[in-house]
């Protein structure tokens, strides 16, 4: 455990990755492809991804990252995650920073289906972009962290894998900031009700299926969580309870608690947490 004036950093196994000598990598140049349509032609609406391709010599395969923005499942866009996407590309990741369909028009599980399609598209581009499909990670904040975590835990098999999931949705590791991990913890707030399409009493099965914390098993990929201790929108127990459940299942994980930060400030002042998260990802896939 590391404790500083800005945060408390816990690791389930050994020391946090950010403390190891090989946590950082040389920064690489990259090129950016904007506005790439990743959905099939018959999708309800075309969805775009911004793609970051690191400039690496040779023909070796590279890891990739699926990056998903927050916004309460209803707003915001990939521009919020631009600096994180850049950091990942500079570390050697092929990055797809995606938009997804929004609630309340598109309710659960439709935004998850978008992520499943994004993974299928990334796999289809693997040869052209030199992507190692066994080393794809997910990165998200707030509702984006929720969707990425749900993809990591339910996308490959089970009821949420149909009809667009499967083996192509498997993630090698996840970085999740401000994660709403258990939707039963919310007192039927508007954003969650509009995302699910009803209250907890009206749609208990959907709340269960949509809660990443309810799907943790020993087969879960490694997780890095960061969360503000003063978060009132998504209270910090969403992260601490999720981390405890990961540890109980023997899943390698780290928890970076950002002291004196709320939900928005934990994202705006995310620098050290994201750097530690990328060090964690590097440890998993390089």
TrEMBL record:
Q: Which GO terms describe its molecular function?
A: hydrolase activity
Native organism is Vreelandella zhuhanensis
What is the protein's given name? Answer: Alpha/beta hydrolase fold domain-containing protein
Gene3D superfamilies from the UniProt entry: alpha/beta hydrolase
- Matching InterPro entries, A to Z? AB_hydrolase_fold, BD-FAE-like_dom, GDXG_lipolytic_enzyme
Keywords of the record = Hydrolase
Chain positions covered by the region annotation Disordered: 1-25
The residue ranges of the BD-FAE-like domain are 51-246
Name of one Pfam family that matches = BD-FAE
